[in-house]
Amino acid sequence: MRVAILGMGSVGKGLLQVINQKDLGITVTAVADSKSALMDRDGISIEEVLEAKKIHGYCGDTSLSSVDVVTKAAYDVLVEVTPTNATTGEPALTHILQALTRGRHVVTSNKGPIAREFERLHRCAAKNGVMLRYEATVGGAIPVIHVLQQGLAGNRVRAIYGVLNGTCNFILSRMAAEGLSYEQALLEAREMGYAEADPTYDVKGIDPAIKLVILANTFWKKTVQLEDVDITGIDMITNDAIRLAEEEDCTIRLIAEANPERGILRVAPRLLPLSHPLVVEGTLNAITIETDLAGEITLIGKGAGSVETASAIIGDILFIRDFHAGSHKKAP
What we know:
The protein has helices spanning 10-21, 46-56, 66-72, 92-101, 111-116, 118-127, 144-151, 166-178, 182-191, 200-203, 206-219, 239-247, 306-327, and strands spanning 2-6, 27-32, 37-39, 77-80, 105-108, 132-133, 157-163, 230-231, 250-259, 264-273, 284-291, 296-302. It is of the alpha/beta class. Strands 3-2-1-4-5-6 form a six-stranded mixed beta sheet, sandwiched between helices. Strands 8-10-9-7-11-12 form a six-stranded mixed beta sheet.
């Protein structure tokens, strides 16, 4: 399986390292970062690319770009892991559309284009007879989309709700465990690399809301946008609120919830019993799926990280490979 990778941040580098370490039958034929690109239809040297990125700050030829990779490189699957733009979905949206139109499969961790142009992207994939996979956009290493589409096939999904942002969960966990103020817990999250210099995207609830849009569009064939989600973040949570929750043997978690039967699409802090399965600590994510046959199933795991996200991406790549290998087999 020939793969081209756009994006050489932590996820892109983590993915290259995993491919290099494991014998997965994946050949990387092209890579691109924001400054350069490298293409070789016979396969590039992953060690050399990672070393060049480390030393020079770019991965290849500065006269080439990500557009050259998408439109000219030899690949079966385009992996799009450039930074997310929740407002426009660009430049990832253009990359993905060009690859799909070219008749190439796409795997992405990029939430922006999937949330913003969900229906358009799927129409393009179907028209060109290729697959669009995006497990890594929700829940990091947690295979929630695969579980829902394959593992729980035949079930009617009534609701999905959970902790979908590790930064917020870390802050709330530290406020409860150590009595820290919101500002103190946020500072600690920054120092540990769990929060960005500008944490608005996370603490205002925008990131989990985008993930909720992706889940709703995937499993209920809705055409919803970020603007359709009722969003309340955690930046107004106080020590007093945490203390009052503890007096009731409860705690506070930022919960993203989609329930089409009740018309619910929201992200908001909620009071949960300490024994609740969604009360996870640190940067963990947890997702509960409510179904008609299987009942409630809760998935817990790491919601971010370079290797963790690479796990989801590789799962999608191998799903595409195995699906096509199976579709080419003749019935006995």
